[in-house]
Amino acid sequence: MLKMAVLLSGSGRTLDNFHERITQGTLAGSIQVVISNVATALGVSKAKAYGYPAFYAADSTAVNAILQHYQIDIICLAGYLKLYSPPAQLARSVLNIHPSLIPSFCGPGFYGSRVHRAVKARGCTVSGCTVHFADGNYDEGPIILQKTVELAYEDDIDTIAAKVFAAECEAFPEAINLVDAKGADFFWARVAK
Q: Are residues 114 and 186 in the same domain?
């Protein structure tokens, strides 16, 4: 079972998903701490209500200062809208979820509804999400898994977002379970250098 730190910037919907699955016994992890770069983020309030230690930290240095007080195996970026630089010992232990099928619609500036607008503007008939290890660049690092969703021609941005988020709710816990089962090195070793 992996000891998790969860970093977020917003409402904490992914935190809700993690908490529910941990409670159900279907996620091979335990949340040790929740940190937000937004002091007023709803996710911080949710974390406290769930009983998790929760903090505000403006940048990577502040986040890492908090993390040193916890035993952490993986850091999950759960809607964390800032480039994060982990401490050296966790450099290959940061998981991110992106709301597209990387390498499409990713990189600097591609997050949230911006991704779904780009998917709609391109006329895509599928989209999805990607869970990957973060490597210090936006939306790079070894891919753990991807899930696709079919899009109808008439789907609007909100419909696309809802379909992709439903896939994310399945993908992120599944990816954490895969990392628990196979270890992080397995995923780093399978990508071209």
A: yes
